[in-house]
């Protein structure tokens, strides 16, 4: 029986988030420039997206560029932005064919104009697709998002729209850039690093974390299926006891 056949379709994570890590090390191991790793990472993006759509996951968030990534050498940042533009341009028809909707979170206004335009056009074109939503985190960091949400809430308090005592979990959820999406149940990070790196800090509060040693360009469908199978074997207690969950 293949890994995929062992997956219980009734217990799928609704939303998977991925920290795609290890492109640079993968390229270095092959004696190539870091950008070669990013270029080869695109195939893994396609593998992950197809695997999730195929099995019935409804949301997939990919950490494609963090706020902190702006401090990388300008040549790498430029190459990554170009790669993003060319990939979005090329893959929009594949998203359409597969009924996948594209969304983005992060400080999109920080991205180069061309990148913003390409992204906006793909988001618009795919907006009515219903099979799965692919969310790209671009110029994103969870702290940036939480600070923004805090400012918005503070303003609403100042304007008398809400009272301080009314602020709860839901208020924060509704002011984050992820407000349209459910929280991820499963977060995967490649490359053997065991960190969250400023990714979805609020939304991952009760997510299952899954770490794999492979570098991102080597990641494939089977790895997603294996992560889902591992997820299905875990007991999610949300702070309760095992007995409470079973009853
Ligand atoms: C992390 O590896 C990867 C990134 C910062 C960029 C990810 C981008 C892609 C896979 C390409 C295009 C993406 C889309 C969505 C079209 P790293 O550079 O941090 O590797 P290292 O840890 O080995 O240095």
Question: What can you tell me about this protein's structure?
Answer:
The protein is built from 8 helices and 6 strands; from the N terminus they run E-H-H-E-H-E-H-E-H-H-E-E-H-H. The protein is an alpha/beta fold. It has a domain of 140 residues: Undecaprenyl pyrophosphate synthetase. Strands 3-4-2-1-5-6 form a 6-stranded parallel sheet, sandwiched between helices. Helix 4 links the parallel strand 3 and strand 4. The relative contact order is 0.19. The mean pLDDT is 97.
Question: Care to give the gist of this entry?
Answer:
With 247 residues, this protein is an alpha/beta fold. The chain has helices at 23-29, 34-55, 74-97, 113-125, 142-158, 169-175, 221-232, 242-246; strands spanning 15-19, 59-66, 100-105, 132-140, 186-189, 208-211.
Order of helices and strands: EHHEHEHEHHEEHH
Strand content: 5-15%
Largest pleated sheet: 6 strands, parallel
Mean pLDDT: 97
CATH class of the domain at 10-131 and 216-233: Alpha Beta
Under CATH, the topology of the domain at 10-131 and 216-233 can be stated as: Undecaprenyl pyrophosphate synthetase
Work out the helix count.
Answer: 8
Going by helix content, strand content and strand pairing, the class is alpha/beta
Q: Which small compounds were modeled alongside the protein?
A: farnesyl diphosphate
Say how many strands there are: 6
From the coordinates shown, what is the CATH architecture of the domain at 10-131 and 216-233?
A: 3-Layer(aba) Sandwich
**Rounded radius of gyration (Å):** 19 Å
Low-confidence stretches: none
Cα end-to-end separation? 31 Å
Globally, the shape reads: globular
Spatial order of the strands forming the largest sheet: 3-4-2-1-5-6
